[in-house]
Amino acid sequence: MISHADSDWMRRSLRLAYRGLGAVEPNPMVGAVLVRDGRLIGEGWHERFGGPHAEILALRSVQENPAGSTLYVTLEPCCHFGKTPPCTDALIRAGIRTVYIGVRDPFPKVDGGGINQLRAAGIDVWEDVAVEEASSLLAPYLKRVKTGCPWVIAKSATTLDGKIATSTGQSRWITGDRARSHVHEWRGRVDAIAVGIGTALADDPMLTARPSGPRVANRVVFDRTGKLPLTSTMVLTAREVPVVVVTSAESQEDWRNQLTGLGVDVWVLGRNNITEFLNEAGRRGWTRVLIEGGGSLLGAFLDEDAVDELHLYQAPILVGGAQSRSSFGGEGRSLLTNAWRGKMVEELSLGHDRFVRMVRT
């Protein structure tokens, strides 16, 4: 039986797990809490890729014998040797009596095997505790394992009337300092930050997190015909911070070779380059990709139904104008019944601006 108290302990584990965001990928964020007689006796979270798992750190934090205690863990404990030994073995040796799990791990080397091993050792195991919250936290990892593709975050900074630039193309700065600092925090948590060639030419961006975060993201430019200058900021810093140029056979081979010689990773993809890009990103173990614009690239991802999460920064200003650019270009949806729909999972006030984070429903 799963009680309200059990769900509350799992939510504590989820809050712990979130601390690993950006530091543990491509591993999942996992938190673990040990409880005896309604009393917290130990806790931990997966802190860095290659480091001890949450269950192990929770066991190490205990100041008394953990035998007979209850474990709340956001994801099914691993039962295989990877960079660390199986967590199930450690739990069995410690004499844990009951394990509550948020979601089952679909990774092929686990996928119910951890649960079966614990039950075979006489441990009571309960699944799907605070499952909606656990599934939401782990959604990027779960998507990559199940589909082979990363989680796609579409980011846009707009006016109240949904414009990302005026009719003359002016876009700096729609939002204020606090909103831009928040963007940089997210840049330091993802595996890649992508822009279209229009944005790359107009802004010549660095596309790095400032200050740096737990991850160094690959900087990605979608440039089908080969317009990115060899003297652009990203190209000139490609040996310091990774750069990927997604292009096609329409670009000049000599240009591609020169980029490669300057340290740029060039991906020559076909016409359906969004799908091909996501497949290749997944093969490389990327968990989160942040699409920063412009409107053409954001629209292309929306047209491919490839947007999982929306980060919207909205300034309290109006621009107007039929020719002013909007967040999402592309073909769009002809029917409201086919519109991208999401639910709000976070809302913040950032100075005068507003931040809304939504995930697709």
Structure description:
It is a single chain. This protein has 361 residues and is of the alpha/beta class. 29% of the residues lie in helices and 23% in strands. It contains twelve helices and 14 strands. It has helices at residues 4-18, 54-61, 87-94, 113-120, 131-137, 139-147, 177-187, 197-203, 233-236, 253-261, 273-283, 295-303, and strands at residues 31-36, 39-45, 70-75, 98-103, 124-126, 151-158, 192-196, 218-222, 243-247, 265-268, 288-293, 309-314, 342-350, 353-360. Strand 4 (98-103), helix 4 and strand 5 form a beta-alpha-beta unit. The radius of gyration is 23 Å and the shape is elongated. The model has no long low-confidence stretch (mean pLDDT 95).
Which tags fit this structure?
single chain, 361 residues, alpha/beta, 9-stranded mixed beta sheet, 5-stranded mixed beta sheet, 14 strands, 23% strand, elongated
Q: Biggest sheet: strands side by side, in what order?
A: 10-9-8-7-11-6-12-14-13
Q: Please give the number of β-strands.
A: 14
- What's the overall average pLDDT, rounded? 95
Rg is: 23 Å
Helix fraction by DSSP (H/I, runs of at least 4): 25-40%
Distance between the termini: 29 Å
SSE succession: HEEHEHEHEHHEHEHEHEHEHEHEEE
Which structural class do you get from the secondary structure elements? Answer: alpha/beta
Strand content: 15-25%
* Contiguous runs where pLDDT drops below 50 for at least 5 residues: none
Sketch the major β-sheet.
9 strands, mixed
DSSP summary: helix tally: 12
Outline type = elongated
Fold topology:
Layout: H1 4-18, E1 31-36, E2 39-45, H2 54-61, E3 70-75, H3 87-94, E4 98-103, H4 113-120, E5 124-126, H5 131-137, H6 139-147, E6 151-158, H7 177-187, E7 192-196, H8 197-203, E8 218-222, H9 233-236, E9 243-247, H10 253-261, E10 265-268, H11 273-283, E11 288-293, H12 295-303, E12 309-314, E13 342-350, E14 353-360
